[in-house]
Write a structure and sequence with these properties.
single chain, alpha/beta, L-arginine/glycine Amidinotransferase, Chain A, three-stranded mixed beta sheet, 7 helices, 15 strands, globular, binds arginine
Length: 281
C-alpha cells in the first residue's frame, strides 16, 4: 500500500450556473424529460461544488448562463484549453450548437489569444482528457474521429483515440478520470481511473498498456458517475454515491471528497461535466 501524501496544485476552473437548467429534450440515456428537476436544489448542489473548489484554493471563473441553452451548466463541453490555447467545441446535437459561440466569445474576452473554431465535431473536455504527455480522446457517440487529428495538430500533443461502446458512457469523461497528470518526463507516468466496460476490447488493451496501474472501477460506481470526477493531484471530487471508489483512492494516497450532484445527473452529467479546466502555458 502506498501511503505517501499527494500534493495538490492550484487549478483554474470554468463553471456556468444552472440558472436555465432543465431536461426538455433527451440526447443521452440519462435524460428523461418526464422527470422533474428541482432547480433550487440543482443550484445548491452546484454552489457547494464551486465553493468546495474555492475552499481548496482553486480559482473558479463563472461563465454567464444563456436562457436558450439548458445544458450550458455542463461547462466542460464548451472548449478544451491546453497551454493557454483554446480549441473551441462543435456540438453533435442541434440543441447545443449555439453554446460553442458563447464559450468562444468568453475566451476571447478573457485574454485567451489563441482560440480556434474547430472544423470537426468535438465536445470539449467531454471527449478530450488531458495528461502531461497526451490527449486521450473519446469517439463513438459525440466527438468525430477527425477532431482527434485536429486537436493533435493544434495542441502538438500526441492524441490517443479511444472507442466508447456503451451509450450510457457517451463522453470519455463519464468513463475515465485523470487522478495525476504525470510529469511528462519518461517515468513520470500519469495515473488514471476508468471503467473498462465503457470501452471496446482494443481500447481496453490500449489503456492497460498505457496505464498498467490504473484504478479500475466497477459497474455500480461507473453508473453513479464516479469516473466523472475532478482531481487536483490530491483531492478527488466525485459523486458521493460512488462509494466503492473511496477506499481504493485513499489507499493510493488521494483524499476523496464526496459531492451531491443528483439534480445535474438528470441531465447526464456530474462533477467533471460541470467543470472546465483552464490550463495555462
Ligand atoms: N445533457 C448533456 C449532453 O448530453 C450532458 C453533458 C455532460 N457533460 C460531460 N462532460 N459528459 O450533452
Amino acid at each position: 500500500m502506498r501511503t505517501s501524501r499527494r500534493s495538490a496544485t492550484p487549478r483554474r476552473y470554468l463553471m456556468c450556473p444552472p440558472t436555465y437548467f432543465r431536461v426538455s429534450y433527451s440526447i443521452n440515456p440519462w435524460m428523461d424529460p418526464g422527470k422533474p428537476v428541482d432547480l433550487a436544489l440543482a443550484h445548491t448542489q452546484w454552489e457547494d461544488l464551486r465553493d468546495r473548489y474555492r475552499a481548496l484554493g482553486h480559482t473558479v471563473e463563472e461563465l454567464p448562463p444563456h436562457p436558450a441553452f439548458p445544458d450550458m451548466v455542463f461547462a466542460a463541453n464548451g472548449a478544451t484549453v491546453v497551454d493557454g490555447r483554446v480549441l473551441g467545441a462543435r456540438f453533435a446535437f442541434a440543441e447545443r450548437h449555439g453554446e460553442a459561440a458563447v464559450h468562444a466569445e468568453w475566451y476571447r474576452a478573457h485574454g485567451f489569444r489563441a482560440v480556434r473554431e474547430p472544423q470537426n465535431v468535438n465536445e470539449g473536455e467531454g471527449d478530450f482528457v488531458v495528461t502531461a504527455s497526451w490527449l486521450l480522446a473519446g469517439r463513438g457517440f459525440r466527438s468525430s474521429p477527425l477532431s482527434h487529428a485536429e486537436a493533435q495538430e493544434y495542441f502538438a500533443r500526441p492524441v490517443i483515440g479511444l472507442d466508447l461502446v456503451d451509450p450510457r458512457y457517451y463522453h470519455l469523461d463519464t468513463a475515465l478520470c485523470v487522478l495525476d497528470p504525470g510529469s511528462g518526463e519518461p517515468g513520470g507516468r500519469a495515473e488514471v481511473m476508468y471503467y473498462p466496460g465503457a470501452f471496446s476490447a482494443g481500447s481496453r488493451a490500449v489503456l492497460a498498456r498505457l496505464f498498467p496501474d490504473a484504478l479500475l472501477a466497477g459497474p455500480a460506481d461507473a453508473a453513479a458517475f464516479g469516473l466523472n470526477a475532478v482531481s487536483d493531484g490530491r483531492h478527488v471530487l466525485l459523486p458521493q454515491a460512488a462509494v466503492g471508489l473511496f477506499a481504493p483512492l485513499r489507499e493510493r494516497g488521494y483524499e476523496p471528497v464526496g459531492m451531491d450532484l443528483t439534480e445535474l445527473l438528470k441531465g447526464g452529467g456530474s462533477v467533471k461535466c460541470v467543470t472546465g479546466e483552464l490550463r495555462s502555458g
